[in-house]
TrEMBL record:
It comes from the Bacteria. Residues 101-194 form the Cytochrome c domain. The lineage of its organism: Bacteria, Pseudomonadati, Bacteroidota, Chitinophagia, Chitinophagales. SUPFAM superfamilies: Cytochrome c. Keywords: Heme, Iron, Metal-binding. InterPro entries: Cyt_c-like_dom, Cyt_c-like_dom_sf. GO terms for molecular function: electron transfer activity; heme binding; metal ion binding. This is Cytochrome c. It holds the Pfam family Cytochrome_CBB3.
Length: 215
């Protein structure tokens, strides 16, 4: 009987203690890591900032994506200056040879991003060019011919990269549409097509490397 009484008392104590559950764990070290905060797609970050959560959905400054090439070392020239545009001639394309897979991807990137202006055949007859043959596009300024034009055939890859990265003339920047690696791939594709137009080859093994910088 005595043992039964003891058991009843213990059960009662356990039941009583369970009704006083502690809802807060107290202080937590690094709560942002202990508790997940979901971020809805396309939602404003103001709600998180109001809670003191400094999340900006941007890479840490100075970091580079794994497998990505180093960023372009020259900043954009200020209005009226062309110092860095000229210096860009000295920067060689790090992708001197494209594999067959890379060459196919480079062609796709060119057609999607560049072909609408510069043309599928790099002849400046893209669909956005306003012409008089019944296939007029919305823009009157004729895009540059990348093949059959000595100015662009002799232009070093680094200077092309500068133009694609920061924009030049009527062409805007493509830095947000194409990664550093993709921009170099497209330029290497253009150089290969230019070499082909001169009677060279356009195979992946013989894709043209950057020419000696011209000043």
């Amino acid at each position: 009987m005595k043992k039964l009484s003891i058991i009843i008392v213990l059960v009662a104590l356990v039941a009583w203690s369970c009704n006083d559950v502690r809802r807060s764990p107290g202080r937590v070290y690094m709560p942002d890591m202990a508790y997940s905060r979901a971020v809805e797609t396309y939602s404003s970050l103001d709600t998180l900032h109001a809670q003191g959560i400094n999340y900006y959905a941007l890479p840490v400054p100075g970091t580079i994506k794994r497998g990505e090439l180093l960023p372009f070392p020259l900043p954009m020239d200020k209005q009226g200056d062309s110092t860095n545009y000229v210096l860009a001639k000295q920067i060689a394309n790090p992708l001197t040879v494209l594999s067959p897979k890379q060459l196919t991807e480079a062609e796709r990137l060119y057609l999607v991003n560049c072909g609408i202006c510069h043309g599928k055949a790099l002849d400046g007859n893209g669909v956005l060019h306003k012409r008089t043959d019944g296939t007029d596009g919305p823009y009157g300024a004729a895009p540059a011919k990348l093949v059959g034009n000595i100015k662009y055939e002799d232009m070093p890859a680094g200077q092309m990269f500068y133009s694609v990265t920061y924009g030049k003339g009527q062409m805007g920047s493509y830095a947000s549409q194409l990664s550093t690696t993709q921009r170099w791939m497209v330029i290497q594709y253009i150089k290969a097509k230019q070499a082909e137009s001169k009677g060279g080859t356009t195979t992946a093994a013989a894709a043209t490397a950057d020419t000696t910088a011209k000043k």
